[in-house]
Amino acid sequence: MSDQSIHVGARDLGTAKLVYIMNFVGFILPISTIVALIVAYLSDKSDELVKTHLKFQIRTFWWTFLMVIVGIVGAFFIVGYLILLFAFIYALTRYISGFMLLNKGAPVTGTKTLNLVAT
């Protein structure tokens, strides 16, 4: 019985890991990020640990998307390039720190904030 519960937990963590990996691939193939967002929204979030990571990834996507839109508009005034650079750094650091927390088996506690790093 305990082996079955460990397997279910590993499968749930696998979904969150898959979404993180798809987000990393999204820096090269942006469609992967859209697929990761859909998977995160459609995943069964019964495990609280997985729920915090998926919520964190969804929020990271939307805030990064907003920054990219503002950066593209601002690119006409040069400042947009700095905003785009910040959006890249913001997403990358959040995905790396979140993935590291997931590998430790720790939940993301700061899902309602815009921290640069997962806490």
From TrEMBL:
Its main location: membrane. InterPro entries: MamF_MmsF (IPR019109). It holds the Pfam family MamF_MmsF. The chain crosses the membrane at residues 20-42, 62-92. It is a multi-pass membrane protein. This is Transmembrane protein. Keywords: Membrane, Transmembrane, Transmembrane helix. It is found in: Membrane.
